[in-house]
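User: For documentation purposes, I need each entry recorded in a consistent format: the amino acid sequence on its own, followed directly by the corresponding structure tokens. There are two entries in this batch. Please keep commentary to a minimum and don't merge the entries.

Assistant: Recorded as requested. Entry 1:
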Amino acid sequence: MTQRARIDTNGPEPRRPLIDAGAELDPVHPMKLPLSAIAPRGLTTAEVAERVARGEVNDVPVRSSRSTVDIIRANVFTRFNAIIGVLWVIMFFVAPIQDSLFGFVIIANTGIGIIQELRAKKTLDGLALIGEARPTVRRDGMAAEISTSEIVLGDLVELGPGDKVVVDGKVAEADSLEIDESLLTGEADPVVKQPGDQVMSGSFVVAGSGAFKATKVGREAYAAQLAEEASRFTLVHSELRSGISTILKYVTWMMIPTSIGLIISQLVVKNTNFKDSVARTVGGIVPMIPEGLVLLTSVAFAIGVIRLGRKQCLVQELPAIEGLARVDVVCLDKTGTLTEAGMDVAELRQLSGSDETYIHKVLGALGESDPRPNASLQAIIDAYPDSKDWRCTESMPFSSARKYSGASFSEGNGESSTWLLGAPDVLLPAGDPALAEIDQLNEQGLRVLLLARAAGELDAPAVTAGAEPTALVVLEQRLRPDASDTLRYFDDQNVAAKVISGDNAVSVSAVAGKLGLAGARNTVDARRLPTERAGMASALDANSVFGRVTPQQKRDMVGALQSHGHTVAMTGDGVNDVLALKDADIGVSMGSGSEATRAVAQIVLLNNSFATLPSVVAEGRRVIGNITRVATLFLTKTVYSVLLAILVVCSQVEYPFLPRHLTLLSTLTIGVPAFFLALAPNKERAKPHFVRRVMRYAIPAGVIAAAATFATYLLARSHYSGPGALDAETSAATLTLFLVSMWVLAIIARPYTWWRVCLVAAMGACFLIVLMVPWLQHFFALKLVGTTMPWGAVGIAATGAVLLEVAWRVVDRRFAA
């Protein structure tokens, strides 16, 4: 038989000739040679150059991240930056530079956000190049891998199992070619393609092989944007970000009437110095804006991408980091996930007295009949060389749906035969004596394929009927060394692992048992699962290992779990996993997986290491847990700022603070601490209801802070009189607000570690330095006058701290999120 050039799917393929110089055409069945032995030569170099010159190139940009312009625009042109920018300009004309410090802080924050997102973009773009699909095209009689963007109109593109159709075209060659168009049409059943049929970009091959001629490239292709959308860096569609957007919407609506009332109160009702009134009005409006919250969320996500990128983990959709942290069920495909992709033939057992030498010839011929062998067939190819006098006259590639492959041969001595290779429990009727022997092998975690001689033609509807068992091919699977530790991690984190495989259920159970999966003995043959969603969901909740699962069943199982309120992650690398990956809340693909799986997955493990998943989970938990912490800090400030403004308007008194005071307080009690807290390790399991969990703390904390501060202010107004009284009143109120805000920070920083204690202490020390150093006192207009009122301010703050502790405990008990 003609030796076939095999493709290395793990790296760039060298150019290879399409026609074997030693190949001899079978005069009876000339078309049954491998396609590459008789294929058209494709375009010439000159023809490619002409098409490039005419612009007939597949030039659709595939981006893994937002453009630099988009990043800058998103960080600079925000609603709150516009408000603060206007107020900043006003302050330049009416107040000293120290009252304009809040504007410089915003510039610094925006710059930090841009830099971190650009770093994340660089990381993502580099990883995307590693994981980019590289289709094989034929040019000048040679086949070679090229970038998708290099395909030109008229190129002949080869297809094999798992390959994406990257541009629209017309089938030129087909060898049992089956294409899944469900991502485009919604139809789950694969479509058999014949020469002349149309193929659409965005579909993928599930079985067989062939080639098609590109008829539409670039933006003219039917689904030209699919690959771009699948691998785009995005900051939307996450509970965290949508929750923050909801909060900001309500904050905006609160700000408008409160700001108007404050402006009228300070500029119209109070007949005081105009410039001082403007400064105090701005001082009341600026702290209402939680300007750093969106920034820190973006920075936390961006740094998460960078950290995961260093571990060769490509996050194709940014909220996937958050999503995987919320997952409570992870569905694992066995082959390629728990086990390595490669296999070894451990044993060959003859059945019915068959001749071993003859069986070797059959297996060698079957190996050569498939131009794109899967892992099982590749192990057989490695173990049994091809018999050159056998000719393949017809072939049926392996399909996950039917669980077997087959081929018909002319044996070189005038004899013809048809053979099937696949799952024993599919090819054999129930109760067959051979199944008992197979079960014993499966219980050892071995994979068993049955070689059977078909009684009829390969294209017969019931080709398996009457098949004669001839041999058992026993394959040994290589367990991933890190799989056991990863499964143990998920168990410790209360994430249920469900092994879903197309292999024999007993064999899958044995592999799961070797890896220490909890509930590995609870094995279910998916052919016996209920078809209705409720019954399937109950069976999935009660069991952990499922075998003989079809691709459509994998999809149904994901949906059934979701119907019971689970957040589901699906891992896989094969074309049979695509539908389930697409429907899961989080799809995780191996980097060596098919192009189709990488296209629909939100996370791609480029190093093919299942052990990377805990890092992704941990990164998601860090982002969610820490942003919840810092959001409470920011929104506490918003609440007390709004309430203070309302109290000032109702009391018809001067607003107690200048912008410089609140800039100092925000920096020491929120800005600097929040940056460290947002990036700190955090293993707390992600919880839902982000808005409710944040506001249940922020509202009582803000109310207590506002009440304590205003009480101190009113007490100081009755205590001080004469010139400089307002400055003394402001200093006392600032002291109370700082101490209460510090106590909020101290609560948020729990549980304490050495660096968190140091962080809180350092912020307190910085404020103490401001109160003690004369030039800083003058710069920030802070000077405590006398001893009675400052100690009164401390006493009120202490009362506020006690109320905070009580409120925190009441909230935890009565309003659990």
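Entry 2:
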Amino acid sequence: MELARVIVRPVDEYNQKLVSHVHPANWVNPQPADCYDLVVIGAGTAGLVVAAGAAGLDLGLKVALIEKHLMGGDCLNVGCIPSKCIIRSARVIGEIWDAKNLGINIPKQQIEIDFPAVMERMRRVRAGISHHDSAERFKNIGVDVFLGNGRFASNNTVEVGGKTLRFKKAVIATGARAVKPSIPGIENVGYLTNETVFSLIQRPDKLAVIGGGPIGCELAQTFQRLGCEVTLFHRGSHLLNKEDADAAEIVQNVLIQEGIRVVLNCQLEEVVAVTEGKRLYFSTNGYRDSVTVDEILVGAGRAPNVEGLNLEGVGVEYDTRRGVKVNDYLQTTNPKIYAAGDICMDWKFTHAADAAARIVIKNTLFSPFGLGRSKLSSLIMPWVTYTSPEIAHVGMYEHEAKKQGIDVATIKIPFSSVDRAIADNEEAGFLKILHKKGSDEILGATIVASHAGEMISEVTTAIVNKIGLSKLSSVIHPYPTQAEAIKKAADAYRRTLLTANTKRILGFLTKLS
């Protein structure tokens, strides 16, 4: 069967290079092996890690990888990489805006933003790293790569491109996609999602962003800084409502200060085409209003890609909202078939898909030989919202601990007390550590800072390795760094161990000396 051609717009040298790596038009699917130890459907992060990990074990395993669209999945093509590229450009604008506070005066009207160049740089960077996820690279490491629609044909076979692949075990890693909004009229006027917004080459003057979660907030701030007039719509009473409320408030205030119109508690009622563009009618707190924009960007949720796989035919249970049903070992209701990544997990992060893929490798290839099984519930999962400032979190929130009946104590270190943050003019953030009451065991942490994502791993490492606040207090942190806030939090815990009686004894001994 002839391979369906994939086009990524704009069709420039960078996107052509990208496609030549992740869905080459001249690709010829191999002749299937007699039987595969592992067949993986979906070549996003989870699928790539499973396939590469299994093939790289040097055990002579037969591994097949199927992808119907672009290898690399969301992360490379329409997620992590392109978004962080344009966020980096936008961060420069934010730093220029703040430069006056550091003694550098650059009037806003003198800042020249070359939006096409920002997007071209993103495409160049994406194409430059795409070889890591390329069909040719996976072929070279011993994976049989099949481009086309994969579909279960029986309990031990998958069909793709007119060929039948027999397997011992299979993995579903087909990911998720942006949820279609149910707003009357929006389909008629058209809208952008993370899957199409990075194809822009001209800046929309006015942009509506629907969804006040991480994707919506990150892109709203980015496009505002790049020169758009942004209106951000959110159904909740405050942005980032799944995050620590104090952290979310800081980011929300920054977005408002930077000129974004934030509309909370809103119900989007209708979208119509008008001469000036696209008009959204909405109501909030009992009032009806409208706004006219050039483009609408929808960033409100993800839907699992469960269609077309014939999951019913092989006894794999799924839900169209939550995805494929798995147990703690990432095994589906068919014991021969596993799943990993956005298709089955609440954690829709690249690093979560990577971690889940490693669980699948162990549980499909090693556990049958009595080498133990890994559990999804054992993972300690950090995440980051890449606004300015960033919000990073790991472990429990206070309400989660209380729900489990755990008595907790909180240590909060404002960055206004951290010398490096003061020097950097970045005092608005904080570090908050949650620990078990009467113990130094760390249960969770939230950091709000310019580079919170770079700082959270120290706390994650401590939780994973059961390193308490007492030991963290003895770790020497370079001075001055913002990560010194972690040591300050650990020192604050140590001070709570000094009872009134202990303090009196120490004071007496000090006088004697």
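Summary note for entry 2:
The first helix runs from residue 13 to 22.
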